[in-house]
Amino acid sequence: MIQGSNILGYERPLVIRMSFATCIVVTVCLPLLGLITCVSISSLFHFEDATGTHCQVPNYLPSISASISLSPECHIWRFCIGLHSAPRILVAFTYFRFYKSRFAARSSESALSCLNLAFSISENLGLLLLTYVSSNETYFVHKEGFVLFIVSSLIYMLITCRLWRSIKKYSLNPEDIKSHHWKVRFLLLNVCFCAFAGFFYWKHNMYCESGSYTFFALFEYLVVFSNMAFHLTAVWDFKSREVVVISSFEDKDF
Question: pLDDT tens-digit profile of 151-161?
Fold first, then answer.
């Protein structure tokens, strides 16, 4: 919602309001739509390039790294990730302030909230690194960005579940209980999908079996989807909050 008008010659500040839930949904949907678009384009138009590996065996799904390293897929992915990065930081600091106010008198949870913020920012930085340095450009840097993203996201989700277990313990709000339950479920799914993706990646490189890389790509998608679903639970956490942008007008003499 946008507010602002001119009353008796005086400009009222321009106020833009958006529910925090809407901001979170848009933030999550940007990489989701970007990923679906990139994988679809790679599968339809660049299938051989996207699925080919050093093993030279048949594969049927492109990995995310392969998809986002081609053109125009890389530009679409970079646009979506770049656009969603700033709101991700906003959500991270909103959580940090929320935890700080909730656990002001509890030193252990207060310390965990600081770690939670650090790993949230680290996860975002890892995602930016693997996005803007493709596997075709500098594979080592891209790989390190991917590892940073995965490790940071897992630790972030683990700490978040620990904090919400404490919140659920003293809360009578059913939204808090539901949020904690779904966070734990998505964390467990993410860990399982990471394990399966790692197994099939190792199996592909070790034995060059047909189909192993396809299963790796499939579980890689599921890792990302479960990560997005985990972040989407913030809709329940900040259901009643708003993002407000105020533009003030200054008097200027010409």
Answer: 999 999 999 99
pLDDT in tens, 159-212: 999 999 999 888 878 889 999 999 999 999 999 999 999 999 999 999 998 889
Q: What are the residues whose beta carbons fall under 8 Å from the beta carbon of 192, sequence distance 6 or more?
A: none
Distance CA 136, CA 217 (A): 17
Phi first, then psi: give them for residue 46, nearest 5 degrees. Answer: -130, 40
Q: What is the DSSP letter of 250?
A: -
Q: Which two tokens stand for residue 94?
A: 């909103």
Preceding peptide of 31 cis, ω within 30°:
no
| pTM: predicted TM-score of the whole model, two decimal places | 0.89
According to DSSP, residue 50 is labeled H
Q: 3-state DSSP: the chain helix, strand, coil percent, rounded to 5?
A: 70, 5, 20
Locus of tokens 């010659």? 9
State how far the Cα of 208 lies from the Cα of 191, in Å rounded to an integer: 25
